[in-house]
Amino acid sequence: MIVASTFLFIGTTEVVFILFIVVMVFGADKIPEIARGLGKGINMVKNASNDIKSEVTKSATKNGIDTSISKDITEEINKVKDEIEELTGSVRRKL
Predict the structure, then answer these.
(1) Per-residue pLDDT of the chain (95 residues; tens, 9 = 90+)
(2) Is the model's pTM score more than 0.90?
(3) Helix (H) / strand (E) containing 4
């Protein structure tokens, strides 16, 4: 059984075709500039979301809202993930 990896339900052939179209439309010399611009944009969005998250956390602690509940939930989720990984690890090794 062969499992093809897909990204957003797009196969390898479609990705190659999309890259070919991008090269044809923008040209090979413009692709690094486009990639840099996308990287900067993603970085700006990431920084903005981190700023918003920190402001919400500061506001919650300032108003006396307990934020440790989310930490407890995250720890429990990680414990369950580890337990599942331990169980499925032996099954994966047998296959």
Answers:
(1) 344 555 567 788 988 998 899 889 988 888 889 889 999 999 999 999 999 989 988 888 888 877 777 778 888 999 999 888 887 776 655 55
(2) no
(3) none
